Write a sequence for this structure.
């Protein structure tokens, strides 16, 4: 059969498998021009070679096999333009999502490199933060399971892809002045996820603001609970610098289980809003 290509020859020319061609035949997408009734061998014409190339290109655009079958069914310019326009919009959305993922990964890599430069002997310091946005239900919990469940619920509000890459945005806050209690005291906390202004505009609900201002900060390793050593350091730092706490206290996960399973590498930051005491 000089004018035909058998299934093996066509598969080799188009760099696909013979099983793919058989699958296309079974679903009615791309059927052979001729099937030998004696041995059921499939044969294709040279005209079909270009059709198969078009199928491959449409697959590269992300079209499903079902959409491609519709594309070939009674084609005309208007129908083709409509289908390709729809696919173009989907492709633009995918590109934007990939750009966002690239931005997140680049940010995370830069973040990890900077964190590794930190002085391992953590000491208190004053940092100024601009106003920040956070997602929070503003519900306080003392039970760890409720806290984890609430944090999981908050993640649903994230509109970006791969929120796990942004682990340095998660944490919790409390309205309790922890330094007016003993170190062993339990106090209620509310989970939060920091977000950009652009994200906040898209999420709209459950958005709260963390006030701009000066914060007494200290890093520490381990679990969320502030170690007694850092607790006492911060207590002394606030007192010795004639400061007073003027708002909610925040605990932000800087490096957590999404980046390491080693407890000595997990890093948390305590952020306490402060102002100078007014001397009477």
């Amino acid at each position: 059969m000089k004018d035909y290509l058998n299934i093996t020859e066509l598969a080799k020319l188009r760099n696909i498998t013979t099983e793919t061609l058989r699958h296309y035949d079974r679903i009615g997408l791309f059927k052979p021009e001729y099937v030998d009734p004696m041995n059921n061998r499939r044969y294709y014409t040279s005209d079909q070679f270009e059709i198969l190339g078009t199928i491959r290109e449409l697959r590269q655009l992300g079209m499903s096999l079902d959409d491609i079958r519709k594309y070939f069914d009674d084609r005309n310019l208007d129908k083709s333009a409509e289908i390709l326009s729809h696919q173009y919009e989907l492709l633009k959305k995918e590109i934007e999502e990939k750009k966002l993922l690239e931005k997140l990964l680049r940010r995370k890599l830069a973040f990890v490199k900077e964190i590794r430069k930190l002085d391992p002997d953590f000491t208190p310091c004053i940092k100024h933060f601009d106003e920040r946005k956070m997602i929070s239900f503003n519900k306080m919990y003392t039970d760890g399971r409720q806290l984890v469940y609430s944090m999981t619920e908050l993640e649903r509000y994230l509109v970006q892809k791969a929120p796990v890459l942004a682990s340095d945005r998660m944490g919790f806050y409390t309205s309790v002045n922890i330094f007016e209690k003993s170190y062993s005291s339990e106090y209620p906390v509310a989970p939060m996820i920091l977000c950009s202004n652009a994200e906040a505009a898209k999420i709209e609900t459950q958005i709260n603001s963390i006030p701009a201002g000066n914060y007494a900060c200290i890093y520490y390793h381990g679990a969320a609970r502030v170690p007694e050593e850092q607790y006492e350091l911060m207590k002394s730092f606030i007192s010795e610098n004639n400061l007073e706490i003027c708002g909610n206290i925040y605990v932000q996960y800087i490096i957590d289980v999404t980046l390491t399973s080693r407890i000595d590498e997990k890093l948390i930051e305590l952020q306490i809003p402060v102002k100078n005491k007014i001397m009477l």
